[in-house]
Amino acid sequence: MADAQHQLAERLKHAFPDQLADCRETLGEVTIEVSPEHLLDLMQALRDQDGFAFSQCTDVCGVDYAAYGEGEWITEQASSAGFSRGVQGNSFARRGLTGIYGVDEITSNTGRRFAVVYHLLSLRHNMRLRVKCFCTDDNFPVVPSMIELWAGVNWFEREAFDLFGIVFEGHPDLRRILTDYGFVGHPFRKDFPLIGNVEVRYDEARRRVVYQPVSIEPRVLVPRVIRHDNRYADRAAQKESNDG
User: Fold this and answer.
1) Alpha carbons 193 and 136: distance in angstroms, whole number
2) pTM for the full model?
3) Distance, CA of 211 to CA of 99 (rounded, Å)
């Protein structure tokens, strides 16, 4: 299988030397990167050329690369209040204080924030391929729709639009699919507040569901930290003596 993936990567590099921005093999999988202007032509070639024949697009998903690789709980030290990064909440995803909910601009530490990832399957050659396309504008991410090539991506693209706000140019019915009709924002963006913007409740006087600002306060969930020191040892010894 590793040889097959390596051969696929080499054939991709040879067939599309000008279109590919990147081609790599990782964990037995091939991932290529292409810019939005080359995406539609390259995808059509991947579908139609006999050497590739990727007849199915099994999934389309969005990715927000803001703060990429920064784990909120990754730390080597713990205080009496828990892990420092979680307590301080220095990840902007925690309170929604950036992007459209705070400061004017949010940037990615990769230099490019939004990407669309396509997973292709070739039944003829028993191969899979991941295609990644970064949007050129973080404030208005746009990529061409793949509906004319694979009709089944209709709902996938609507999902990425709903959750990430990525626009698929040429989509015949681009509207929300998972959130409510009047939903504000895109919940999978990393600057979306964890508590949301509004909540719903049933109003007895109006006899209908109404929207209102969220009533809960942002809170930090600190994982339990077990410390083997004299504080806990003394308590354990005292408990054993009391039980005895």
Assistant:
1) 24
2) 0.75
3) 23
What whole-number distance in Å separates Cα of residue 244 and Cα of residue 242? 5
Tokens matching residue 68: 């990429």
The pLDDT tens digits for 70-116 are: 655 555 555 555 544 444 444 444 434 344 434 445 555 566 899 99
Band of residue 3 on the pLDDT scale cut at 50, 70, 90: confident
CB within 8 A of 236, min separation 6: which ones? none
Instruction: Indicate the helix (H) or strand (E) that contains 159.
Output: helix 154-164
Rounded Cα–Cα distance for residues 164 and 99 (Å): 13
b (16+ CB within 10 A) / e for 136-154:
eebeebebbbbbebbeebb
Burial class (CB in 10 A: 0-12, 13-18, 19+), 56: middle
Distances (CA, A) of 111 to 40, 134, 149, 165: 23, 10, 30, 18
Strands 82-83, 78-79: pairing kind:
antiparallel
- Using a 10 angstrom Cβ sphere, with 0-12 exposed, 13-18 middle and 19 or more buried, the burial of residue 169 is exposed
